[in-house]
Amino acid sequence: MTGNVIKRVYKVIQPLERGDLHREWQSCINQISQLKLNHIFKITVFVDEKNWKNALNELPSKLKAVFPNTCPAFTFLSQTPGSNKITMEVGLVNNDKVSISHKMYHNTSFSLIEYEGNTELWASGLGLTSDINDITSSATQAFEELISLLASEGFSLNDVVRQWNYIPKILGFEMKDGKEWQHYQLFNEVRRHYYNTHRTVEGYPAATGIGVAKGSVSIDICAIKTKDADNIYSINNPEQVNAYQYKQDVLIGELVDGTRTKQAPQFERAKLISQPKSGTLFISGTASIKGQYTIGIDNIDEQTNTTLGLMQKLSATAQHTNEYSTNNSICYSYARVYIKNTEDFKAVQSICKDELQNIPINFVQADVCRDNLLVEIEAEMNMKPQKDMPYNSPVDACHHSLQQ
């Protein structure tokens, strides 16, 4: 890029006043209203399990009313945000010269970010409003919505670089014909079908597969059309087996009908979009797994520290991927931390805040994809020329202010 440089900025908005759902919601909305609304491209709303259904029924229309025209991409997730009833994660672009537009496709709001001949499509909540209960049908509906929306803008699954997969009761099982089929495994079988059918490029998106307490399977994505597709890289972690190469013994549940093997999760550990004057590293949901086996069973401190160490390894690998990334400094834009047990919140928050200083961090309660995993962390990192950066360490933070 020789002109506009895109920089995504994230804000975690928590209610300044505690109370019922609507009181906390209004507190968050008041804070969003103080931002540059035309810079917002994505809003993720986290709601506790008790209030999620009411929030989904009542609040989307109120969120849309905040914006003068079309609302950015948004979703409502049944993941309890610590001691709050509701928390919001807001993504903004900190550049007045970058074009941001919002559109509707059926009932889904999505955002387009255009700069220097590149286009990003951000969509959230695909499949969210489905009333389908079984995981296979629910996941199928989410993927069908995703493919249709992408096609409406000239995109395809080939262009998806980051994907979030929200799976109700991810560790649960469905009993069918005397077999126990794990929810996450069922989702992986559906994903295999759609990737095999609609994705023809090598590699997979960076992704998170995480549990939600209620609702149907839903998907969020970032798809990118860039002038130089050769500058999109899959980043592996030398300390981890690629997830899509896991052996059968770490995949839970019976074989799904019509399959000879259980499908391993199809995602990359990270995805790098590298350009001369900027770049993005999407770090997938990362947990305490070395090789392909869980490290630190029943030890929340060890799992959290191991996870953060694996993320640093990914950022170091990305920084030496090509000439652009080698000459750039890299820093976190945000981190989202999924914690299985509420009693572990304080320990995880303490470790993460010490390690990831001065960046927006969102902590929510959610089941992770293995029963013995206690924490999972995802992140986005920003790359800029070293001369423009105050620090070189991957854990040092970018400047996150956004003029209000």
Automatic annotation (TrEMBL):
> Which superkingdom heads the taxonomic lineage of this protein's source?
Bacteria
InterPro entries according to UniProt: FkbO_Hyg5-like_N, RutC-like_sf, YjgF/YER057c/UK114
Q: Which CDD domains match?
A: YjgF_YER057c_UK114_family
Residues spanning the membrane: none
Q: Where is the Chorismatase FkbO/Hyg5-like N-terminal domain?
A: 112-220
Pfam families linked to this entry: FkbO_Hyg5-like_N (PF21168)
Name of the protein in its database record: Chorismatase FkbO/Hyg5-like N-terminal domain-containing protein
**In which organism is this protein found?**
Carboxylicivirga linearis
